[in-house]
Amino acid sequence: GVSGEFARSPKLWRQLGRYAATLAEQTVPDDAPEDLFPRFGRDPAENWRLHLQYNLDVLTATDQLIELGAYDVSHQDRLRKVFEGLRRVTFRFGLNHGDLVPKNTVLQLDGTLVLLDWGSASVGLTPHNAFMRFKNPAPGEAPFSKAEIRWFSEGCGVDPTEFESELLGVELLGAIDLVRWAVDQRPDRLGETLAKARSQVEARFRD
Q: Which end of the chain is more exposed for a tag (fewer CB within 10 A), N or C?
C-alpha cells in the first residue's frame, strides 16, 4: 500500500472520521493495559472528575506555575471559571487513537485504510481528543485545513462548532496540566510545555 500522507483526499479524511466514531463505541476490556488510562484510574467519568478537581485545587496564591510563568496571577480567576465550566458539561468517553491523521495510515491496494502508530491511544473524551489533535500540528507538520477538518467531521458524524467552547476549555486545561506533569515527571520537557501553556492562556484571555 501507500502512506495516507501521499493519498490525502476527502474520502480518506471521512474514513478517518468513521474510524474515530467506531473506536469511541468500542468496549474497553477489563484487562486493557494501564497505559490506556489517565492517572486517576480506569473509570473514565471518575477519572475526569478527579482530573478537574485536582487542577482546581492547585489554583492557589502559591501555585508554582505562576512563578514558572505558565500563567499570570491576574489570569487565575478566569482559569478557575473555565475549569468550573467544564464541570457542568456532560461528556462522552471512549477509546481514542490519539494521532488520527493521514501519516499514520496505509492505504492498501484494495482500498482498505489501515491505522498505524497506536502509541498515543487512550481512553478519554470523545470526540474532543480527536479534534484537539488538529489544533496541535506536530513539529514540521503543516496545519490542517478547514476542509480536511470538515471532511473528518462528516465521517465522524459531528459538528465541531457545537462543542467549540468546550474544546477550547479542554485544550486549556490540558496545556496547564501538562506543565504540572512535566514538573513532576519530565523536567526535560518543562520548557516546551510552559511555552504551550503561556500561548494558550494569552490567546484565551487576551484583553
A: C
> CB-based contacts of 163: which residues, under 8 Å, 6+ apart?
128
For 43, the grid coordinates are 473509570
Contact yes or no for 11/150 (Cβ under 8 A): no
User: What does the pLDDT profile of the chain (207 residues) look like in tens digits?
Assistant: 999 999 999 999 999 999 999 999 999 999 999 999 988 999 999 999 999 999 999 999 999 999 999 999 999 999 999 999 999 999 999 999 999 999 999 999 999 999 999 999 999 999 999 999 998 888 888 899 999 999 999 999 999 999 999 999 999 999 999 999 999 999 999 999 999 999 999 999 986
What DSSP designation does 91 have? -
